[in-house]
Specification:
The protein has 239 residues and is mainly α. 80% of the residues lie in helices and 0% in strands. The chain is built from four helices and no strands.
């Protein structure tokens, strides 16, 4: 039978040993947690540097050496808003056609010696009739009237043709003017189309850059959250 005093001594020794072991374990765990906290702080500092570096790249280096910028998107929107295809179609009703309408009235193209030609024609017919012994009878009068009417008709045909030729010339000038104006507008529209397209490329480049920046930042933040979660779980296991 173990003496009471001895039994109490053993119990006391075991209790002290357990306390020493528990203290050593707690100290080791605290050292582990301190180490993990330090490593976590360093990781967060590294992630902050990464996120700041992403921002610096897109707002600094890329802005300096890149293509599309924020203003390009606004310029593209403004170009589209102001673009009107109708501006590049020439409307003839805005053209002062009188600039080329020099034909005037048909009467202006009558031979200026019209009266003299008619009189000479009548005299010539009368002279011919007299030579033929017709004199001033009804036969002579009819011959004169017929010849004068024919000459009158010929003179009006000539005047009408000159009038028509002048009108055709004016029309051709007018048509050439319209064609040249439309060609000029077509070239201007082609240039505008090219400008809008290039501005669109710049705007799209800027949008792509912003999307990439956001994606890079989100990826870094997601990695940071995952890393912090790993450290937190590791520290929790030391309690």
């Amino acid at each position: 039978m173990v003496p009471v005093a001895v039994g109490l001594g053993v119990m006391a020794a075991n209790l002290i040993g357990n306390q020493l072991n528990s203290a050593a374990q707690q100290e080791a765990k605290e050292e582990g947690r301190a180490y993990l906290r330090g490593a976590q702080s360093q990781a967060n500092s590294a992630y902050s540097n990464i996120i700041n570096g992403i921002k610096a790249y897109y707002e600094g280096d890329r802005k300096k050496y890149g293509i599309g910028q924020a203003g390009d998107s606004q310029a593209y929107r403004d170009a589209i808003a102001s673009y009107s295809p109708e501006d590049y179609v020439y409307m003839p009703d805005t053209f002062a056609g009188s600039q080329f309408d020099t034909a005037g009235d048909r009467s202006q193209y009558i031979n200026p010696y019209y009266k003299q030609i008619i009189d000479d024609t009548a005299a010539q017919v009368q002279h011919t009739a007299a030579g033929a012994g017709i004199g001033r009878g009804s036969g002579a009068a009819q011959a004169i009237a017929t010849e004068v009417a024919q000459k009158n008709n010929d003179l009006w045909k000539e005047a009408n043709q000159e009038y028509k030729d002048e009108r055709d010339f004016a029309y051709n000038q007018y048509s050439d003017y319209i064609r040249n104006m439309q060609n000029a507008l077509a070239q201007k529209r082609a240039a505008m189309d090219t400008k809008v397209s290039l501005q669109g490329n710049l705007a799209q480049d800027y949008i792509n850059a912003m999307d990439s920046q956001q994606s890079d930042r989100l990826k870094a933040l997601q990695d940071q959250i995952a890393t912090n979660s790993t450290y937190s779980n590791a520290m929790a296991s030391l309690y």
